[in-house]
């Protein structure tokens, strides 16, 4: 493969990864948690170890809490803390399951 082509493909993948998370963020902001869950699942499928995995996992906690799945949200928050112990999102994530409607 031509060296320039691989850079173009990486750039396209990064933009697509960001687009999916922006859509998920917007769905969470609009409290459309079912749409957010679908978008996050697509992101996880396509970008399992992508650059924005940490943000995806934080949004997953909020989405689960928004869906009323508090036990799942608590488990996801604990998993987040184990995977990303130094994350700047950690404090926010740890408070999400208990602050959901």
Properties at a glance:
about 100 residues; mainly alpha; globular
What this model shows, in words?
The structure is a single chain. This protein has 101 residues and is mostly helical. It has one domain (3-99). The chain has helices at 3-29, 33-46, 53-66, 70-83, 90-99. The model has no long low-confidence stretch (mean pLDDT 91).
What are the SSEs and their pairings?
Layout: H1 3-29, H2 33-46, H3 53-66, H4 70-83, H5 90-99
Helix pairs in contact: 1-2, 1-3, 2-3, 3-4, 3-5, 4-5
How many separate domains? 1
Q: Percent of residues in beta strands?
A: under 5%
Question: Which value, in Å, is the CA radius of gyration?
Answer: 15 Å
Tally of strands: 0
Low-pLDDT parts are: none
- What's the main sheet like? none
Helix content: over 70%
Mean pLDDT: 91
Structural class: mainly alpha
Write down the secondary-structure element order. HHHHH
Terminal Cα span? 51 Å
Shape verdict: globular
Count helical runs: 5
In short:
By secondary structure, the chain is mostly helical. It has helices spanning 3-29, 33-46, 53-66, 70-83, 90-99.
């Amino acid at each position: 493969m031509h060296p320039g082509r691989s850079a173009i493909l990486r750039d396209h993948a990064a933009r697509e990864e960001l687009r999916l998370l922006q859509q998920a963020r917007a769905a969470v902001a609009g409290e459309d948690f079912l749409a957010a869950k679908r978008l996050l699942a697509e992101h996880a499928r396509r970008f399992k170890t992508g650059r924005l995995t940490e943000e995806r996992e934080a949004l997953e906690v909020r989405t689960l809490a928004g869906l009323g799945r508090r036990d799942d949200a608590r488990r996801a928050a604990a998993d987040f803390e184990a995977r990303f112990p130094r994350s700047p999102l950690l404090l926010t994530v740890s408070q999400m399951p208990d602050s959901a409607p």
